[in-house]
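PT: before anyone asks, these are the final sequences, not the draft ones from last week. 581 residues across everything. Please model them as a single complex and drop the result in this thread when it's through.
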Amino acid sequence: MNAIEIEKLRKKFEDKEGTTWALGGIDLKIRKKQIYGLLGPNGAGKTTLTFILSTMILPTSGQARVLGYDVVKRGNEVRQRSGLCLGGTYFYWDLNAREILEYFGRLYGLNKQVRERNKNRLIDKLGIKAFEKKPFGDLSTGMRQKIAVAKSLLNDPEVLFLDEPTAGLDVEVAMDVRNFITDMLQERDMTVILTSHHLQEVEQLCKKIAIINKGRLIQHGDIKSIKTGLKIPDIIHLYLDRYDKLGFLENMKGVKSHGVSDGLFISVDSGLNRLDSIVRELKKRRIGIKDMEIKKASLEDVFLSIVGRKESGKAYGKFRVK
Amino acid sequence: MWEEVSAHIYKHMKIMAKRPGELAWIFVYPFISFLSVGILAFFLISEGAPLDSMMFVFVGVIVWNLYGLTQRAVTYGITFDIWSASLKHSFIGKSSIRHFVVGNALFGLTSSMATAVLIGIVGYFVFGFNLLVAGFFLVNLFFVFIFATAIGLVINGLMLAKGDKYMSLIWMGTGIIMIFSGIYYPVSILPVPMQAISNAIPVSHSLASLRASLGFGQSLAVNSLVTGAALSLVYLAIGAWIFRLGLKRGRTSGMITKY
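LR: through. Structure below.
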């Protein structure tokens, strides 16, 4: 059984301005026991999809099942087995972490013993102990987010929805949260659906992703396979002692484009395969190499390529693709 | 079931403990309104009003506070969530509408009973008023509680469907009930069109029944009890339906995710 199964899922929102289709027909299956990334630009429909799968909102048409339970007809069963953590979450300002977790633990229907055990374990593991007695309103963003993560795990969910869990967090706290997620996955059988704008974070945590844009599923699968399939070029970055006599690059095999801006950038089909011939040609022309690096295609390049923007220019500032 | 119900009571208790102002709603404002009405009645009696007019208004004040505190507790179940922008987390796990209603209404009942006891003690020792004489007809208070829960659910349903712009109904609603239910006067003195509205409100009948049991219009006690009870149960069914519909609308429109 898959963790998530989505068939022709559509969602519209209606207001005074008219109708907006947030999801235009998504089909997707996500297997169990992994961290699966959901990517897309702002307004793509990622959060809408997360909200539907976590039963917070109802779809317009189509079907979605979490652990085999229909999100509309068997919403209770889905909620019992899943958790939802949103970035920038707020809780009751006057209550402290322990009280907030106690409240949600009761809402989950957990008995006193299980509540205490889960609360204590999560408070310990997430480093909440240092501020557990402070009112929520007095806490920093990072502290609040840790409580949000703890709340989403109180019921030992089989599926966890993390929607921008590290949004607005400083580097250290974001790292804590990421490490906690990976540790957690090793400890228990869980499927995590991660929505994030931090592509490095997604690349670090996920093997498989889905990319959504304007309510449609554009691409999904293994990150490596997607990169290979898209044939996104590697970038060779060279610092030279001079930048003339570079015309040989125009017709060189495997070179897609090149430009000079804070060094020489060459876009090639494979950095490792082409480097030798480029260095040989530079030596022939007595052009010295001061420094070099090869940048492999990243998830950011994949993302920008798929949502339709030129990856090189964006990644390297003034450098323009030829 | 009890864990989910107790969550709502726990939330109210904790917020009340952290905000002394919340305690004032239970122990201060009702006491002040009772005392001021009692002194007013004293004055009116000294000016020639009948002696049982004090009993008449005291019953109204007790019922009024019971209604207000219960409706407030039920609506604040959602209002606290809206104010703290945590509404989207409220219906999680197995927690259902049933748990929400029972939990918040129970808190309302407990707090309003606490108030009623306080007022009852003050009424007895300061003004010689004993509500317990009503005996069996005290069951009318239960149906006032049911009606208050129902109205609370209607307001909650509207807030879930349309957002916080309906929050003002929490306070407007109690005002409307006060005018039409005969809290401080018999509904018979209202213009006929207003009496028609009064007759549709269970509190009018519950009040009439309680007052009759204390010697104010004997013949109405049982009839009014039955009418008030039946109406309040009908309103409860309607309130529950509107709440359920509101939650569904909120989930369809995405309103619930905005808070």
